[in-house]
């Protein structure tokens, strides 16, 4: 077991903590670029409360609104220009994963003279990896991506039909202000997608790592069990603040390094999904819900022991031994049933996507990321034919 | 669920990483106070390797040796004076919890003109809480206290028969360099005490918190299950590097905030043990092994549900319901049997300590820390009579 871990983000967690936003932001700057999405935070009243708190603390607010789902590099460019023009010295992300991801890249792009698309890894030879960014405060309004407490961001380029990522230390938010009350207004389907998203973050690390990480496995299973216990409660009753709190913390922990350190070896489901959603602009977690079970059935054949462990510890199934593929597959079936039960699609046909571009998705995924031998990093590493096979199984 | 979490310590984990010490330390300074204990690191050859790595990186080494178990404030004073006289700009702790705890206070005391005992909370009205310290790199040689990745330190004062703590942000190590190979030479009994120590850190948070922290519970259970699986393997075969790795990481995670955030409400077993070991200079974890089961039997009567959960999830027992005290107590019996099985004492008589000072321990514990109403913070809060009752049950 070999790894390095570092995560300097400070967490302030609890219902009713939004009014502390101004005091926290003021520790880092006095002119905030406030980044939001399509306006749901305005309709819910969250926006007004956040602005009031910032103004009460003497923080000037420059608004960058309209960040779209699957946030685009064009929005990043616009936000960075706004930050520069208005001499912003701090960025506040008030929204879901798209808003937080865009805000990270805006925070770095504001201090970078080149085009920010050059910072996004998309298979180009020379990526510009920034070493500085404006301080960022994240205020998530959705329990899903975990972006509030990590240094990753996923950005789309509609001109080139690409969706890819960046991940570097200067993107860690200074503070994640997590008020579960802000997630009360999230509709049922988005709540369910968030649960799927956070579980998929965990399964990627759990199944693709080098193995021999028993404590990380326990943590991963803890996140999944918690999400499966409280996710349906939050979906059934959006005002269940306890359930909202528990899935929000689970979503953060799913991707802040606590589960994956020493255990991660690739994010194949995410990488494949990014390509598909670059073409179709589907909800990220909907794509994950479709691809993940199909990928699991593929991977279980070479790594049955880990899938048996999953079946036993998550679903209480009993195996005949660590090579019991039937038990492994039964666990995957149960997982897929869970995704269906909370309202996620589990086949591309549920979204009206046919198989006509499957080879393109596979080629494009491998163009953006491969291990140098033409395979997608994963356990097992995936050839183009493997990716095609998984996608066909998910039609 | 309300909490704040922050832990900026960077972790470099893996067998064979010790030679990176110099390169890491050089990022923070060029004149290192190297703090060690009684000399076991010299006998094992670890000391020479560490010094070589530091010198190769151009780091001057000033040695502070002889830190004793239950480290004393007199050693802190000596180390701080050495650091000042030699203009050290970085501190390296190479040893177990005692060395790391002393190093933290030395790092702060080197920048503080007053007597460092004034920084240790011991019931005095005006504690000096430092806001700056020399950068600290921890290199643990024992899986036990978790001190390598937290901001706490426990220090004894033999002149006043007091043992107490400090905990503040400037004490976070910059880097924890964790090389499980360094723990290979730890003898069986110290390995077992380390396992007991780390489990007790987790049970304190697990049982004393406000409840309603399901994910933290899963993490706590994960640490305990991992320690109970790999602890006996490391005790049976000290050269089992996998087992050493897993208990070392478990020990770190047990007290770095990942388990306790939002879940902690007091450390009664530690607080009582500190008083006892201030009088008897016993190994900290031996005291914990004796007091913890007795405390659990006391606490289970007011909080049976959590102890039933412990019995079910850790030992696979089946309860008749969340108020099944018999099941709760059976789980505690199983836990005590585990401690015995790895060679820990579970009664004061095992250490030759009689009951003559029990009232003194109780009074002194409450003098050092109480909730303002004369009770020890815990679930349930403990009166003097409660503490006496627990100690009597452990004779």
Give the helix level of chain A as a range of percent: 40-55%
Total individual domains of chain A: 2
Quaternary arrangement of the chains shown? homodimer
Name of the CATH class of the largest domain in chain A: Mainly Alpha
Specify the overall morphology of chain A: globular
Would you count the extended β strands of chain A for me? 9
Q: Can you tell me the CATH topology of the largest domain in chain A?
A: Dehydroquinate synthase-like, alpha domain
Rg from Cα of chain A: 20 Å
The CATH homologous superfamily of the largest domain in chain A is named Dehydroquinate synthase-like - alpha domain
Give the key terms.
homodimer, 395 residues, alpha/beta, Rossmann fold, Dehydroquinate synthase-like, alpha domain, 2 domains, 14 helices, 47% helix, globular
At a glance:
Two copies of one chain form a homodimer. The first copy, chain A, is α/β, with parallel strands linked by helices.
Please give a structural write-up.
Two copies of one chain form a homodimer. Chain A is an alpha/beta fold. The first copy, chain A, folds into two domains: 10-183, Rossmann fold (3-Layer(aba) Sandwich); 188-393, Dehydroquinate synthase-like, alpha domain. Helix content of chain A is 47%, strand content 11%. Chain A contains 14 helices and nine strands. In chain A, the strands form two sheets. In chain A, strands 2-9-6-5-3-4 form a six-stranded parallel sheet, with helices on both faces. In chain A, α5 (97-109) links the parallel β5 and β6 (136-140). In chain A, α9 packs across α10 (284-300). Chain A is globular, with a radius of gyration of 20 Å. The two termini of chain A are 37 Å apart. Chain A binds chain B through residues 1-15, 17, 180, 212, 214-215, 218-219, 221-223, 225-226, 229-230, 242, 245-246, 249-250, 253, 258, 261-262, and chain B through 1-15, 17, 180, 212, 214-215, 218-219, 221-223, 225-226, 229-230, 242, 245-246, 249-250, 253, 258, 261-262. β1 of chain A pairs antiparallel with β2 of chain B.
């Amino acid at each position: 077991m070999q790894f390095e871990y570092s995560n300097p983000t400070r967490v302030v967690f609890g219902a009713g903590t939004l009014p502390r936003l101004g005091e926290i932001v003021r520790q880092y700057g006095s002119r905030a670029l406030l980044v939001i999405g399509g306006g749901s935070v305005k309709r819910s009243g969250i926006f007004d409360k956040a602005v009031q708190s910032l103004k009460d603390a003497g923080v000037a607010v420059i608004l960058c609104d309209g960040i779209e789902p699957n946030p685009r590099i064009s929005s990043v460019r616009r936000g960075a220009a706004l930050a520069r023009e208005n001499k912003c010295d701090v960025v506040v992300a008030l929204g879901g994963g798209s808003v937080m991801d865009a805000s990270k890249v805006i925070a770095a792009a504001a201090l970078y003279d080149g085009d920010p698309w050059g910072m996004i890894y998309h298979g180009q030879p020379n990526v510009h990896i920034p070493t500085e960014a404006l301080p960022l405060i994240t205020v998530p309004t959705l329990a899903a991506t975990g972006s509030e407490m990590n240094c990753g961001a996923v950005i789309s380029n509609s001109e080139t039909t690409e969706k890819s990522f960046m991940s570097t230390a200067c993107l860690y938010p200074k503070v994640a202000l997590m008020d579960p009350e802000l997630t009360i207004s999230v509709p049922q389907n988005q709540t369910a997608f968030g649960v799927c998203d956070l579980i998929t973050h965990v399964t990627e690390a759990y199944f693709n790592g080098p193995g021999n990480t028993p404590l990380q496995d326990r943590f991963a299973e803890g996140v999944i069990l918690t999400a499966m216990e409280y996710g349906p409660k939050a979906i059934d009753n959006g005002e269940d603040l306890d359930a909202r709190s528990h899935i929000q913390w689970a979503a953060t922990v799913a991707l802040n390094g606590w589960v994956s350190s020493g255990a991660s070896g690739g994010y194949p489901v995410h990488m494949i999904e990014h390509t598909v959603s670059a073409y179709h602009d589907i909800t990220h977690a909907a794509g994950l819900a479709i691809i993940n079970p199909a990928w699991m059935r593929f991977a279980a054949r070479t790594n049955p022991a880990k899938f048996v462990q999953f079946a036993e510890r998550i679903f209480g199934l009993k195996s005949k031994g660590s090579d019991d593929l039937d038990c492994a597959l039964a666990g995957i079936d149960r997982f897929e049933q869970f995704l269906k039960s909370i309202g996620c699609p589990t086949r591309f046909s549920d979204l009206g996507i046919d198989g006509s571009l499957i080879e393109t998705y596979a080629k494009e995924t491998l163009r953006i990321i491969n291990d140098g031998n033409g395979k997608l990093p994963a356990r097992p590493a995936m050839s183009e034919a493997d990716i095609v096979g998984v996608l066909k199984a998910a039609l």
